[in-house]
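Form 7-S
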Amino acid sequence: MPRVRTALISVSDRTGVQEFARSLTELGVSIMSSGGTAKHLREAGIEVTDVSDYTGFPEMMDRRVKTLHPKVHGGLLALRGNPEHMAAVKEHGITLIDLVVVNLYPFQQTVAKPNIAHEEAIEKIDIGGPSMLRSAAKNYQSVAVICNPARYPAVLEEMRGSEGEVGDATRARLALEAFAHTARYDAAIHNYLSGRADAEQLPDLFVQPHERVAELRYGENPHQQAAFYRRATPKPVGLAAAKQLHGKALSFNNYLDLDTVLGFVREFPDEPAAMVVKHNSPCGAALGETLVQAYTDALATDPMSAFGGIIGLNREVDPETAQAILAGIERHGFMECVLAPGYQPEALAALQQKKNLRLLELPDLQAADPWALKHVAGGLVVQSPDDQSDPAELKVATKRAPTAEEEAALRFAWVVCKHTKSNAIVIGRGKAAVGIGGGVTSRVDAARLAVEKAGERARGAVLASDALIPFPDVIEVGAKAGVTAIIQPGGSLLHGAGGDEQAIATCDEYDIAMVFTGVRHFRH
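Output:
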């Protein structure tokens, strides 16, 4: 490639652009620019040719039309080795542009502002910028294109070492970045306009660009590669906003488990909550008057299964809770991660003594994605989040209604069910789970597992089921263990040996109170 002789610079983000342009002029490069960028460069004493002077056509329509001109795009798209192209360049007085430095109007940042006027958002849709980026990137064999100010130093270094040239490999990488940049930009516009059209409907085209922010240690298994991508929005939410304060890199499975604990602890903004997760399903969960009580009770659900687990907390970690975590590790074995909105200095220092304990800080637990999605072979399944947790009214189905104490325990166990792999059965006492069975194909097996985990703690406890109970068997397992109340969606249409009628009759037989929620909480 010939050396860079002419550069066109038009940027919204002016980070480092004066220094970059000055260095280009020192390498003998002529600068072409427009509008505010041209003024910004002149203020630094850099000689600039206005695009309007070059094209002979003024900026117009409130600067909506500036660079959309054949002399600009001809200079970008002309194939240097094509005689016909070069004849047209000569005939029409077109200057070949060898380097384009463009970044776009801040559309995403604009629409992220609260109560932004639609007219203001529309005016931040860049037209000339993406056009120049795409023209330059299409002709990357001859034109270098920079849309990211972070690339300035490397490009300058390469030009200084090669008599003003930008190499083939660099131009190809820069073009790829430019196309990614415009794709992300167009996706942001599409999503903004789709939201205005009908925020309650899934869009016909699901466009959700993501950007890689971390290499993971491995995938679900050590032989699989993995990375973490965050949704490309101005303000990250959820785990994308978490900051790792300590420990080695996370794995693919760590992120899945962290997502489970995050989903649970954000359910309780008014009470200290804790969950311990293993293999993407909880092995313990509790609320408490204090965070240390919530964590201690959550660990006590099934301390053996908690080995190698993930801890989720919804309050700043204090020294007492930190010491409880360390004591649990000493007694039951190591833990992988702790996720919390913050750490008091003394607590952080104590936990950092454990080399392999990853510590993540997420101040805003409530910010969430508008859609829940999973990958399947060849595509995505997309749904709205499961945001129904605590029904305002419970339908009493049995002769006996639950006591106030039983109802509080039922409601808590119901939320734990929501965050447990289906089929899910949770045995609860007060504000703690004492037995959890989930991720099995038979609901009665899940009940047996939950009762086995609870042991004697099941006597006088309550039982929650994430989906309807079609047969008496689950109830009989609970009754034999001493369960006194049950919460389930209800709605079974089976007749004869099953269905709601048989479930109600079985509960009445054992003097078990049963309530229906009318809501199911499968989690696959």
